[in-house]
Specification:
The relative contact order is 0.20. The longest helix is centred in the last third of the chain and has 14 residues. With 245 residues, this protein is an alpha+beta fold. It is built from 4 helices and 12 strands, in the order H-E-E-E-E-H-E-E-E-E-H-E-E-E-H-E. Strands 1, 2, 3, 4, 5, 6, 7 and 8 form an 8-stranded mixed β-sheet that branches.
Length: 245
């Protein structure tokens, strides 16, 4: 396996990070959860390297913005992914879903690890984040318009920039970590996906303490298009709710 040097900390983390460093929830023995997988795919990004100590700035993550008219979680930003089909492994499901949603050829992705399975109690859903490197890049596109509104190539440098870190407020008053992404930094990344990114980057030592920036953490309310069909109690808003709810 040949991976770029800037990914080395992520590769190591995939074998050392524990579920307790990502969430306080673990499925009980009698839960019989519905199992899903998401593809957390990293890719090289040209033009962002400022020096040998700036390795995290070499990469980007591929995220999808859900169709704004979906009945569940409209407009929510997430990793490609979905439920495991009978007989599938988490890796097989994550790669299949990425192909079906954004036309990402599985042959171009080098899977190098998995994060611990994360349990979302409201939906009894157990999600395995599969880690991959987009080694042989070609084009991706919206292969499933019914599911995907936009594909976002998000620089890790932008995710680490305190100017793009926010707290997201649900109408119930729940607060969780979030990021501003997109060309104009006006798309809110929140919930389950934001939680994975925030906690993994903190574990890697990449993240700044955004809550201690001048003025503290900025709070943003969810836009109206993300609230269609969302229960007022965020504990019922699974699967894409924060890991610490």
């Amino acid at each position: 396996m040949t991976l770029p040097g800037w990914l080395a900390p992520v590769v190591e983390a995939s074998s050392t990070i524990t579920v307790h460093e990502l969430t306080r929830f673990m499925p009980p023995a009698d839960a019989d959860p519905r199992r899903s997988a998401v593809l957390m795919v990293f890719a090289d990004r040209d033009g962002d390297v400022t020096g040998p100590d700036d390795l995290a700035h070499r990469g980007e993550l591929i995220l999808t913005e859900r169709n704004h008219h979906m009945r569940s979680h409209p407009g929510q930003v997430s990793f490609p992914g979905g439920s495991l089909d009978p007989g599938e492994t988490a890796v097989e499901a994550a790669l299949r879903e990425a192909w079906e949603e954004i036309g990402l050829d599985p042959a171009e992705v080098e899977v190098f690890g998995e994060l611990p399975e994360l349990w979302l109690p409201p939906s009894n859903n157990a999600v395995t984040p599969v880690l991959g490197y987009w080694r042989d890049r070609s084009d991706v596109h919206i292969a499933s318009p019914a599911e995907v509104h936009e594909i976002h190539h998000v620089a890790i440098a932008d995710l680490l920039d305190p100017d793009n870190r926010i707290q997201v407020r649900h109408p119930s008053g729940w607060l969780g970590p979030g990021f501003l992404i997109g060309p104009d930094h006006d798309v809110i990344l929140w919930g389950f996906t934001a939680g994975i990114i925030a906690r993994l980057f903190s574990y890697l030592g990449w993240a700044e303490d955004w809550a201690e920036q001048p003025g503290g953490a900025r709070v943003r309310d969810l836009p109206d298009h993300m609230l269609q069909g969302v229960p007022q109690n965020p504990r019922q808003a699974a699967p894409n709710t924060d890991l610490e709810e």
